[in-house]
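Blinded run. Sample ID left blank on purpose so nobody reads anything into the name before looking at the predicted structure. Input follows.
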Amino acid sequence: MTSRLGLLARIDARPENADKVERMLTDAVDLARQEEGTVTWFAFRLGPVSFGIFDTFADEQGRTDHLNGRIAAALGDSVALLATAPTIEQIDILAATPL
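Blinded prediction complete.
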């Protein structure tokens, strides 16, 4: 397994901004592809106004670079679109496999 470190973010949009948050997340995949230390990056929808991001990293430097990178900055710039501040948790991956 190449990724033992990850981030799990929860993002709740204001109802009138859900489409804008969805667009921001789908557009962010291009930014994630440019990050050398990011191994996988997923954006997902949990409900009408609830979204999330799950990403994995080869090492702590990759995770730190991501937290200080362009996606985090874009999320910070979009705070007016959100109902609450995003929650971001650092996680340790216990097991994973491609199926």
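Unblinding after everyone has recorded impressions. The mean pLDDT is 95.
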